[in-house]
């Protein structure tokens, strides 16, 4: 006969379910509806990732929104008061693991545990992982963990497995492994890999909330040990001080003595379990409410139009949810020219298409950064790509737009083929060679970085030189396409992007 679920545990499952469903619905709507929060802006860990950058210069890491800092503050306050209560009652990924843990219990009828010494060693992994993520995010200015994030992979499942695999291949593999492990070992990710859990575990050393055990009424049945999803040895201590405790209170409600053998305390005083729940949810939701009232709980950030109106528009502001039409209007460029510069067939992609949906329409992988690079080429400003180190400034962007409006069109120079480049008259085929160009080596401006998404035409336009000169600089054959991205021709012509970048930098 199944054990009756205590009201407090039923409430916990409902709480986790509500937050999990809300998170899932929002991530699906993000793919379908404009101005809906992305998974990046819904995760409190984003606040940790951007914290140092924000303190140093008031800027946020790419893809991070002000909401991440509000969520982080809520988590910190909650962590100091109630340790890892967030993970036991609110965390969407914890809820997902819980679902698979329940499935595992139904399938295998038994809960497995990792050998104690191995378990203790594995629990340390999340701490160096936290340090590494924060360090590399700080030094690169990007969400270094994003391609490996199982939560991000889950949040993009509504786009289709092929799309998720293209962007989050490692994250998807980790997600599958974590969920399979969760059917065997409860909360595997929470115990061993969660970097946010590492942060709150540190704060968990000083919480106001504790679970205590009255040894005089304990019957040593160890039932509290068996139900703990974090595998804490509850029956052997007087006070649970483990930073792994997620405040689920399963041990309290499972105790068969009914004599307050296990009880909850707040600031040293005995309180009911329901009081702990009310305090925890009130802290979290209250912090979000304050953030909303002060205008800081911003999940989507300003639109391109808003940034253009304020004069702070930058190429980096373009997101996957931006539409082609919105980009062209905000940066005041020709929509047709933008399509051409990005090597996209405008007949297949309507103007109101989001960048993240473009790949499905043109039949290839397409990244928002291709548009950023194409736009930088059109405007004649420096932009080294999403993982580069040369961001454009608002002043540069505005000036470039004004210059582009005033500058007269420059006719393309027609290069006459030399004798070496003319068709051969004999039956023997002659390998094509780069056409001769005017004397003098191609000078590459400082900060201009060659990218695989660029075409020879893009490069020539950006540098205001003949296409033949770019071909000569890159040591490529004369018959190479000038409108196809370089990365799409590397197999055909036998070069690598690394080699091209070295030639270009010489």
Cα-to-Cα separation, first versus last residue: 77 Å
Number of domains: 3
What order do the helices and strands follow? HHHHHHHHHHHHEHEHEEHHHHHHHHHHH
Question: What fraction strand?
Answer: under 5%
* Residue windows where pLDDT falls under 50 for at least 5 positions: 395-439
User: Per the principal axes of the C-alpha atoms, what is the gross shape?
Assistant: elongated
How many β strands by DSSP?
4
Please bin the fraction of helical residues. 40-55%
Query: Could you report the average pLDDT, rounded to the nearest whole number?
Result: 82
Strand numbers in spatial order across the main sheet: 2-1-3-4
Rg calculated over all Cα atoms: 29 Å
The biggest sheet amounts to: 4 strands, antiparallel
Backbone structural class: mainly alpha
Q: Count of helical segments?
A: 25
Can you tell me about this structure?
The protein has 506 residues and is mainly α. It has helices at residues 7-32, 39-42, 45-57, 66-82, 85-89, 92-108, 116-122, 126-140, 150-155, 161-184, 188-192, 195-203, 223-227, 250-254, 273-293, 304-310, 324-331, 335-341, 355-362, 368-379, 394-406, 456-463, 467-474, 490-493, 497-505; strands at 209-213, 239-240, 262-266, 269-271. The protein has a 4-stranded antiparallel beta sheet. α6 packs across α10 (161-184), α8 (126-140) crosses α12 (195-203) and α20 (368-379) packs parallel to α22. It is elongated and about 90 Å long. The model is unreliable at 395-439 (pLDDT under 50).
